[in-house]
């Protein structure tokens, strides 16, 4: 479904990505592990068109998409849950969700809202509240639901557990598993390596802009370097 090939990205003279190559197969959850500053968010933003890359290729379902405008990326079937949630604070929950469907021209938006409420019942209760009045965990649920309103084929998730309590983190990862169980393909960027590898099929380790390790998630969990650096082993 998604192929990233020898991607290079610069911020001025600083090179953030140094020849990154990875693949995401349909119906799978693929995680990207790495410390702060490794280039994880840059990679996700390259895929979603928010940040331009200077070299390399990104293909989605056989179509080249590097440096394509973000709105076109969404219409092709890729939606992003950004780091830090970034909900619209002065819009209500329902208004945030409807913005997520901006690229759609069908008559199924209301029925899709009801379906999402089965994933996120708290959002139905809070649907008239402003985004800024929600807790951090509720905002994360709103960010995920907003991304799903575009009916994506591929969901990009950038640090979904960041700043959340253990209870909300468990809830969010339960939602990830449920979404994948219903066929959603997910590229997951996450610092909580244990949870990320439990819900994913395949993983990549990114260090200072380079992929230094990749493999089946269960295999990576047993790797001594991964355990030492990310699992506290």
Question: Please, could you describe this protein's structure?
Answer:
With 233 residues, the protein is α/β, with parallel strands linked by helices. It has a single domain (2-230), classed as P-loop containing nucleotide triphosphate hydrolases (Rossmann fold, 3-Layer(aba) Sandwich), CATH 3.40.50. It is built from ten helices and ten strands. It has helices at residues 40-47, 70-76, 93-100, 109-119, 121-125, 136-148, 166-181, 193-199, 217-221, 224-230, and strands at residues 2-11, 14-24, 29-33, 55-60, 63-64, 78-81, 154-158, 185-189, 202-207, 210-216. The protein has a six-stranded mixed beta sheet with strand order 6-7-8-3-9-10, with helices on both faces. Helix 3 (93-100) packs parallel to helix 6. The longest helix is centred in the C-terminal third of the chain and has 16 residues, at 166-181. The chain is globular, with a radius of gyration of 17 Å. The protein starts with a strand and ends with a helix. The model has no long low-confidence stretch (mean pLDDT 93).
List the helices and strands and how they pair.
Layout lengths: L1 E10 L2 E11 L4 E5 L6 H8 L7 E6 L2 E2 L5 H7 L1 E4 L11 H8 L8 H11 L1 H5 L10 H13 L5 E5 L7 H16 L3 E5 L3 H7 L2 E6 L2 E7 H5 L2 H7 L3
Helix pairs in contact: 3-6
């Amino acid at each position: 479904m998604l192929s990233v090939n020898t991607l290079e990205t610069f911020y001025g003279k600083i090179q953030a990505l140094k020849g990154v190559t990875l693949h995401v197969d349909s119906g799978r959850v693929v995680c990207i592990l790495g410390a702060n500053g490794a280039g994880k968010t840059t990679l996700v933003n390259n895929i979603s068109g928010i940040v331009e890359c200077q070299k390399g290729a990104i293909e989605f379902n056989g179509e080249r998409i590097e440096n394509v405008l973000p709105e076109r990326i969404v219409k092709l079937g890729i939606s992003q849950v950004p780091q830090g949630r970034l909900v619209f604070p002065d819009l209500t929950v329902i208004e945030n969700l409807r913005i997520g469907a901006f690229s759609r021209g069908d008559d199924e938006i209301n029925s899709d809202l009801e379906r999402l409420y089965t994933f996120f019942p708290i959002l139905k209760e809070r649907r008239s509240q402003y985004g800024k009045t929600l807790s951090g965990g509720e905002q994360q649920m709103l960010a995920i639901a907003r991304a799903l309103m575009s009916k994506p084929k591929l969901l990009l998730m950038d640090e979904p557990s960041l700043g959340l309590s253990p209870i909300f983190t468990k809830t969010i990862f339960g939602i990830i598993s449920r979404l994948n169980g219903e066929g959603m393909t997910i590229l997951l960027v996450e610092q909580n390596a244990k949870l990320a590898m439990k819900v994913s099929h395949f993983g990549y380790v990114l260090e200072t802009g380079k992929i230094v390790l990749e493999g089946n998630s269960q295999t990576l969990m047993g790797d001594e370097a991964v355990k030492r650096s990310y699992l506290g082993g």
